[in-house]
Amino acid sequence: MEPRTLVDELAKVARGLGIEVRVVAMRLPTRGAGGLCRVKGKSMILLDQKQAAIDRAGTIAECIVESGLAWDPEALSETVAAVLQNAMQRSARLAVGAPAQRADGIRALLSPKPGLRRTKARPGSL
Question: Residue 97: which region, alpha, beta or left (left: phi > 0; alpha: psi -120 to 50)?
């Protein structure tokens, strides 16, 4: 399933649970793709439009799990159900402090971002 389709399907699930989903341009740089918040008593997922679709999908899945609302896995497509199940397992592992592991057959939604690699110091550079 394409990441944008996955975002749309997950947003549909969130709306079905009474959670509004908005994609906005964040003014300040953010560490993630968005998150769950409450605005005037309503649950809302805010997503940064600059983030990749796969990151937004991961954020929506995590927010649905974080909300604690129940969804019907039989009413979802196989991929969406697997993504939500993966987010739920990840949330449970993080809650108990266990190291995060990837679920079999599911690509990790929140892959590590590129950064500086550790390199050996050149002789004489220190």
Answer: left
Compare 86 and 123 and report the one with higher pLDDT. Answer: 86
Residue 107 reports pLDDT greater than 70: no
DSSP 35: E
74 pLDDT tier (thresholds 50, 70, 90): confident
| Helix, strand, coil shares, percent, the chain, to 5 | 40, 15, 45
Buried residues in 43-81 as b, exposed as e (16+ CB within 10 A): bbbbbbeebebbbbbbbbbbbbbebeeebeeeebeeebb
